[in-house]
Sequence to fold (239 residues):
Amino acid sequence: MALLSVNVDHIATIREARGIDEPDPVLVAGIAELAGADGIICHLRKDQRHIKDRDLRLLKETVKTKLNLEMSTVKELVDTALTIKPDMVTLVPEKREELTTEGGLDVIHNKEEYKRVTSKLKEAGISVSFFTDPDPDQIKESLNAGADIIEINTGHYCEARSESEILRHFEKINEAAKLTSKLRLKVHAGHGLNYVNIKRFSSIPEIEEYSIGHSIIARAVIVGIDQAIREMVKLVSQF
Ligand code: PXP
Fold:
């Protein structure tokens, strides 16, 4: 039975469209937990374009399940993580101009940086996930850099349009999940997953947890947060 962590960034994005104080991602996180979410995720960017320090502080106080902070290795963000102490951190690459995270970490070429940050976070009792493409070399290097968890980037699979491309990307994820599990790291997956393209994942039991934001918030606009989350929890709990 796989778990679902819900990313609440988009709630903050709507709030910031007006620059006022609603809707509140902290309130939505509580509703998500009541609807069965196993964790709450937020991405604190250096420019705080959606999630802000205030959200992170309050989420830390209120989340009852598990708080996963996505961030890059920029010093201010690492300092914030060490102060707030979320349950886990997911390290992601970050480009200022991107709309959303565009790909996995290049651990091979930045190993010392990831190793240094990971060891600081782990010393503070925070478990560390690396967001990586389904690439065996990056995954092996992530183990060497101290990762506890690999979040496999499902973005390329979700963007593929032809059946052969979809299958090719899916097979890479399948192999990456098996390798990660063999290396005794926890396997998570996310990016671009929705209520349709996630169904195929029932055949990869190694994936313990899914990180999903956009499709849940998009559905919530139509059917409400509670129903949108319950439907996704139902799907992943069948895996
Ligand atoms: N995992 C990571 C590392 C991400 O950066 C994001 C987007 O913030 C997600 C998962 C969730 O992606 P989506 O919003 O497409 O479900």
About this structure: Residues 61 and 84 are 9 Å apart (CA to CA).
